[in-house]
Design a protein that fits this description.
single chain; mainly alpha; two-stranded antiparallel sheet; 67% helix; 4% strand; globular
């Protein structure tokens, strides 16, 4: 009787865990949460969003997931887990001690400890993804991403047409209130006219573009995984709507990568029955791509590109400041979550215009905050992750394409390491790549 009761409880916990995991993925694009403003979240009297401890809806879901995971965890599974990842556990322990020292000696240990806590959260979510993904669950993941992309696409198109946020109940999905005149809002200069770039429910159009790119890549390379017509229609709607929304974000790197990925995918499928079986979809899809490229203002976004643009000069200033900080903190770095605090001191010393943003390069940001040793660990982990992306020596699969896309996006932006939505997406993708589920 005790065995039956225990088995029933374990089964119930598993169902709750599944629901919590899928809800976390579904609400990953949202930024609905409660911000707190302790003293360390201010720099020179200015509130800094990146330093504000925030409890997001996704944080609550992950906390509940962690609780149910721990309560249902079996000792046998735990021992197998440690045996399988023994080398990883030792390295992870050493890295945590190293990061802890960096936080202790940082200018703001409280900000650093908050960053360390968030790192634990994302490590858990990535590790749980590795354990969770199976063939059946992967199909459900595709469904969740498709629904989320369709929602974000519809909202983004509406924001673009209205040139402002939509408001109403979208606030509870994390949509910020903004219009083209809101201070700091992301506008694109098209033929001398400022056009509001849609945000969806994300913190910035570039983050929206990165999410759409990653989600659509997984869906595109998984089109042949289902024979159900309704699922194919759903996937097709997400790819068509997502492509249009991605174009309207005017996110140059994400758009360029998406065009490259489409070319790689079609080339890999050339001469195969897959294209013939899905000819109607691909004709519509390619038509949408052509329309988005040639009949929207996106061409001007690329043709008017200049190294004298404000975005380039700001990025250049941040890169120079980052190298200055690295020279001052070569081994331990500034400590997690302390880059902006150090940046304010460097900018004040050099008498340049204040631009309190993380440096727009993930590798450089890791080097600044964790030092040379932290960067070596990060690159080593990326190398092992890239190795995991291969199976049967297949050079063209969604894991490799997504991994390389993240490297490219991370080389020009910081949101995979600084923004809740980007951090969760990165954790999920790494977990997906490390899973044993291959096909």
């Amino acid at each position: 009787m005790k065995v039956e009761t225990g088995s029933l409880l374990f089964a119930q916990n598993s169902k709750i865990e599944n629901a919590l995991f899928f809800l976390t993925l579904l609400f990953l694009p949202t930024q609905f949460g409660r911000h707190f403003w302790p003293s360390f979240s201010y720099i020179l009297g200015i509130r800094i969003d990146y330093l504000s401890p925030t409890v997001y809806l996704t944080d609550i879901l992950i906390l509940l997931l962690f609780i149910f995971f721990i309560t249902s965890l079996q000792i046998k599974y735990l021992s197998k887990l440690f045996k399988r990842f023994s080398w990883l556990s030792i390295n992870l322990l050493f890295l945590i001690v190293f990061l802890f020292l960096g936080v202790i000696f940082s200018k703001s240990p409280l900000a650093g400890f908050y960053g360390l806590f968030k790192l634990f959260e994302f490590i858990f979510f990535g590790a749980y993804t590795t354990r969770f993904v199976t063939k059946i669950n992967f199909k459900k993941i595709l469904f969740v991403f498709s629904v989320a992309i369709i929602f974000e696409s519809m909202l983004s198109v509406a924001q673009y047409l209205k040139q402002s946020s939509i408001g109403e109940f979208f606030y509870f999905f994390g949509e910020r209130t903004f219009n083209g005149q809101t201070p700091g809002v992301a506008n694109a200069s098209i033929n001398g006219e400022l056009i509001l770039r849609p945000y969806g429910t994300f913190s910035h159009p570039n983050v929206l573009g990165g999410y759409l790119l990653i989600g659509m890549t997984i869906i595109l390379f998984s089109l042949g995984s289902t024979k159900k017509q309704l699922r194919k229609i759903l996937y097709s709607m997400s790819l068509i709507g997502g492509t249009l929304a991605l174009t309207l974000t005017f996110s140059r790197i994400a758009i360029l990568l998406w065009l490259i990925i489409i070319f790689i995918f079609l080339t890999s499928k050339a001469g195969k029955n897959f294209l013939k079986k899905n000819i109607a979809f691909f004709l519509i899809f390619i038509s949408i791509v052509i329309f988005s490229v040639f009949y929207t203002p996106i061409i001007s976004r690329f043709s008017n590109l200049s190294l004298y643009d404000e975005s380039f000069s700001q990025r250049e200033d941040l890169l120079k400041s980052s190298f200055t900080i690295i020279k001052s903190h070569p081994f331990l770095g500034t400590g997690l979550n302390n880059f902006l605090i150090e940046l304010a001191q460097v900018q004040k010393t050099n008498n340049v215009i204040f631009y309190l943003q993380p440096t727009h390069n993930a590798f450089l940001l890791v080097a600044v905050q964790t030092g040379i040793i932290g960067l070596i660990y990060f690159i080593g982990f990326l190398a092992k992750t890239f190795k995991k992306a291969f199976w049967k020596r297949d050079l063209i699969n969604y894991k490799i394409i997504v991994f390389l896309s993240i490297l490219a996006l991370g080389s020009f932006d910081h949101y995979f390491l600084t923004v809740q939505q980007g951090q969760l997406l990165l954790s999920f993708i790494f977990g997906l790549i490390w899973t044993r589920f291959k096909n």
